[in-house]
Design a protein that fits this description.
The protein is of the alpha/beta class. The protein is built from 16 helices and 13 strands. The protein starts with a helix and ends in a 14-residue tail after the last helix. Bound molecules: flavin mononucleotide. Flavin mononucleotide binds next to strand 4, strand 6, strand 11 and helix 13. Residues 152-154, 157, 176-177, 191, 200, 202, 204, 239, 270, 273, 316, 345-346, 366-367, 370, 394-397, 416-419 line the site of flavin mononucleotide.
Length: 475
């Protein structure tokens, strides 16, 4: 008889193989319609891709058992490392998922914004103050998203695993927040799962490898992309932060633009993390105006000099804002002609329904409890910005219904973090599938037609002087 320990491991291996095999059978019997294997890279059917889908389903159902033994930050580190392995290893381990493509999910919101702005400039219909910056902004990069679902900032903070994350089924990955100089962030432990609440609390405090190291990784990736056949078509956003000790915040964000903007498909100024002292005060009107003016000037100057289209510039805001803060942000964004808003970051509030003992931890709360708060803020800011900027909706998205709610409230793109961190990549598939179905069911031909529909319908029905929102046409 083999020793007891060998018997235990043999039994475990049998269980794992059984679960994996079962999941593979489920995956292989999935409806074949609309299915292209392996991120559209390999034509024809590739059974490995479906076995990989099986592995992600297995993690979705049994991941909780695994997570009990690994603290949240270690789990995060391992996930990023695994996503950074070479493609062949990721394939063998089930980390490259079949890419389900849906025609009605393709979108290009910044292209439409650009057309809208050009049209307004021609007709003089722009409601915002014109000529705030010294010279006209360069044209925006033309960005086409395979679907609206992206990975929010904070998962791949240091740009280590972009391709691996895109291969899991995201159309875009927002890296960062990146600070100009490397910094450690807050002491550990600083990330906590609230399993019972489908939520996370973090107080990372902008741990960052710094802009130079991140720029080097992005440059290496760009060089690889030139040789890759075919290259990854996913979109890469760069989220900029500031160092804890910096007094002149705008100078830090300008350094971020100088070092990272040329590698970015879009840029986000993060003024809403609750874990850097004083950061959220930058959302107040005069500070925000000065900060965004200087960052936009720097971006425009750089891309005029490079004679290249510029990455759209967005600002990421907190969910914990007063009415006057919200109006101030909307005014500044319109006045400076910023390209968009990311709504929202984590909240410092602790809703009464929380059940997990970890609710007592300090930091920003994300996941399910943030869902309606962030959707309501998307709707509110869509109204206040009159549909004239691109909104990326983020906070508590766990299903196609949640993503669709954010789109109908005014988001052109949607991001996830907590549900992906807790459940792995499988849910991305159901979110995309259900979103595509919901859009079709409501009689829309594309995501774009549904953007802000709740608000636009509300305005149509209102009797008193309606605000004219820009209904963007389909791509
Ligand atoms: C562990 C963790 C780290 C995060 N780090 C950042 C960050 O560095 N920069 C940022 O803009 N947002 C960060 N976020 C916020 C997310 O990007 C997102 O806005 C928020 O989690 C809400 O989305 P969710 O409910 O899908 O998680 C972080 C969130 C979590 C959970």
């Amino acid at each position: 008889m083999p020793p007891a320990s060998v018997q235990v491991w043999a039994r475990r291996a049998l269980i794992v193989t059984g679960i994996g095999g079962g999941a593979a059978i489920v995956a292989l019997s999935w409806p074949r319609q609309d299915r292209t294997p392996l991120v559209g890279r390999t034509p024809g059917s590739n059974p490995l891709a479906y076995i990989n889908l099986g592995a992600s389903i297995t993690y979705y159902h049994f991941g909780y058992q695994f997570r009990r033994f690994v603290d949240a930050e270690t789990g995060h580190r391992w996930a990023v490392r695994a996503a950074a392995w070479p493609e062949s290893v990721r394939l063998a381990l089930g980390l490259v998922l079949p890419d389900l493509r849906y025609d009605n999910l393709r979108c290009a919101p910044f292209e439409q914004l650009q057309q809208q702005q050009e049209e307004q400039a021609r007709t003089g219909a722009r409601t915002a103050t014109i000529g705030t910056t010294s010279s006209p902004s360069p044209p925006l990069k033309s960005l086409r998203f395979a679907h609206p679902l992206g990975l929010a900032a904070g998962f791949d903070k240091h740009a280590e695993a972009i391709n691996g994350l895109l291969d899991m089924g995201f159309a875009s990955v927002e890296i960062g927040s990146v600070t100009p100089l490397p910094q450690d962030g807050n002491p550990r432990p600083r990330v906590f799962r609230l399993e019972e609440d489908r939520a996370i609390i973090n107080r990372y405090g902008f741990n960052s490898d710094g802009a130079d190291r991140v720029a080097q990784r992005l440059q290496e990736r760009a060089a690889e992309q030139l040789l890759a056949s075919p290259p990854h078509t996913g979109i890469v956003g760069v989220n900029l932060g500031k160092n804890k000790e910096t007094v002149d915040a705008a100078a830090d964000y300008q350094i971020g633009v100088d070092k990272l903007a040329r590698f970015a498909d879009y840029l986000v100024v993060n003024v809403s993390s609750p874990n850097t002292p004083g950061l959220r005060a930058l959302q107040q009107k005069s500070e925000l105006r000065d900060l965004l003016f200087r960052v936009k000037e720097r971006r425009d100057h750089l891309f005029r000099r490079l004679a290249q289209p510029a990455p759209p510039l967005l600002v990421k805001i907190a969910p914990d804002l007063s009415e006057s803060d919200k109006q101030d942000i909307a005014d500044v964004v319109l006045e400076l002609r910023l390209d968009g808003l990311v709504i929202s970051n984590t909240t410092v509030a602790r809703p009464p329904q929380l059940r997990s003992p970890n609710q007592l931890q300090s930091g920003g709360l994300s996941g399910a409890p943030l869902k309606h708060v962030s959707t309501d803020l998307v709707r509110d800011m869509y109204r206040r910005t009159k549909g004239q900027v691109v909104i990326i909706g983020v906070g508590g998205v766990e299903s196609g219904v949640d993503a669709y709610a954010k789109i109908k409230a005014g988001a052109s793109l949607v991001q996830v973090y907590s549900t992906f961190a807790l459940n792995g990549p499988y849910q991305l598939h159901s979110i995309k599938r259900d979103l595509s179905t919901l859009i079709k069911q409501d009689g829309f031909n594309s995501v774009q037609e549904a953007v802000g529909i709740d608000v636009r319908r509300e305005q149509q029905h209102a009797t008193a002087a309606p605000i004219v929102l820009q209904a963007r046409t389909a791509v």
